[in-house]
Amino acid sequence: MSGTMQAMVIDRFGEPDVFRLAEIERPTAGPGQVVIRVAWAGVNPADWKARRGWLAQYFDYRFPFVVGFDAAGTIAEVGAGVTSFAPGDRVVTASNQGLGENGTYAQFVRSDVDRVAHLPGACPMDLAAALPTAGITAFEALFDVGRLEPGQRVLVNGGAGGTGSFAIRLAREAGARVAATARAANHDYLRALGAECAIDYRSGDVAWAVRAWAGDDLALVVDTVGQGTLLDAVDWVRPGGTVAPIGTLIAGEPAHDARRAAARGVRVVPTIASFERQGRQLRALVERLADGAFDTIALTRMTLGQAAEAHRLVEEGHVRGKIVMEVS
């Protein structure tokens, strides 16, 4: 199926005002792929980094380029060999944008089937669109890297953001105990997500608060903020525990002291989403979504035409939960 579609595109790298609405060629499904009619697109910090060209180390941009990793919608077309999806199926996807293809800020997006999951009818598409990048990254940090088990204590640095919000909910659903950092204005939100200890990183002594809550029994730190904000975390985690700093792509970012961590028997594992595990993780996340596990995550709903403003908000930081944009 061919034709055109509307999309928010960039013709060069730069500030949010490089976005423009354009009519471009609609994608077609190749073998093992589907084309999805996008209902909602999620907005992530990785999106503004893509807009600025920071992902050029991973793939070649082809202008006009469509930004966006996450979407929820319905199957519009299936490629050869695809038997698990049919036109009209409700789905959520971590799209092929990470491979250099056009992303989700468009009426249609192409995805490999291993990064697409069926979306049960009871799951709202706006919340589903918030799920892939932030949810998969949180899942990777907690379970594939952190090996989190029921009853263990975990600290989430930056708990009010997208990845932090999903990390708190996933950890609580797994039976772990959670502390999280955020501005004081977000502490009620952290508690609504399930954090039993909310720490004000601006005015409080984070190290003291963590020690008072966890003692010597902190198993895992998921650091969604980075930029040197929690380098002492290697001293807070118990021997055998893990610090999982989420990759930010920020050049020159301070790193945790690997020698100090090793001397204490603490693993430091820089964490990003893994293409090999994304499909399994996305399906596990959708199961939790269907069970209502993420109903307390805050959403700011915007439209595709507000992509520039959405990027300004995300790039400035301090968005509570996730921003999603209605497309169709």
Automatic annotation (TrEMBL):
GO terms for molecular function: oxidoreductase activity. Keywords: NADP. Residues 14-325 form the Enoyl reductase (ER) domain. SMART domains: PKS_ER. It comes from the Bacteria. Coiled coil: none annotated. CDD domains: MDR_like_2. This is Zinc-binding dehydrogenase. It comes from Tsuneonella aeria.
